[in-house]
Amino acid sequence: MNSTVTVHQIDERIARLVFSNPSHRNALSAQLLSALDEGLGALAAQRVPVVILGSEVGQPVWSAGHDIRELQHDRDPIAYGKPLEQVLRRIRAYPGVVIALISGSVWGGAVDLAMSCDLVVADHSASFAMTPVNIGLPYTTSGLLRFFNNLPIHVLKEMFFTAQKLDAQRAERFGVINRLVDSSALEATALEMAQGIAAKAPLAVAAVKEQLRILEDLQPMPVQAMEQIAELRRQACESSDFGEGLAAFAQRRVAVFSGS
Questions:
Q1: Which of 65, 139, 143, 245 is catalytic?
Q2: Over pLDDT 70: what percentage of the chain?
Q3: From the candidates 39, 54, 65, 66, which is the catalytic residue?
Q4: Check: CATH 3.90.226.10 for 1-184+199-260?
Q5: Is 66 marked active-site?
Q6: What are the two backbone dihedrals, phi and then psi, of residue 122, each rounded to the nearest 5 degrees?
Q7: Strands of the 105-107 sheet, one edge to the other
């Protein structure tokens, strides 16, 4: 496997976490996600106040999302205990600020990765496409809530129903992107933001982040509704449509869904 995660310690308060999987458009393989989880865990143990997270700048694809080859053996790659969900929880619980540094297109689960970060700095090549519907994969309630808390409902539906890209300009308008800059200024802007945060009281910043995380998670749901959602997801994950979606992707053809 040629996927890597590299930690660059910029100074004692700022680290850059770079992930790379160049032969598969920076896809989030299980190996890559495990390394991300390990890297974030190590930085959390060191109490590094600010982490800048992203792939290398200047590539056409920031991340293609899940490694589709691995889905052939996993009918529900976004369930609670799966590698992506573990990394998303790690970012949201990180005792400091995680800044997503985005250049290029962001697909599927990688959009959730970016949305789980505290701040997003991007250049004009950035775009965001939620593509699970292309392969028949139903998204989780927890995942949808992360988008529900950050996007107008009709924009959220557009993304999940059509799998079309949300370009950088619209993403900035809806608050997905905090800073939209030219590629030449991307890294300097992220670093300037990180330095500004790192100069503040880290315990106060961490306390505010945790309070906001708890407030976002206060979404009570009746047990019956949870059971209904679980059954709908089970049916979709076990459907022939999901198998057809994966086969079509592997064969580079348009999927023909039957609704069964």
A1: 139
A2: 97
A3: 66
A4: yes
A5: yes
A6: -140, 160
A7: 61-63, 105-107, 127-129, 166-167
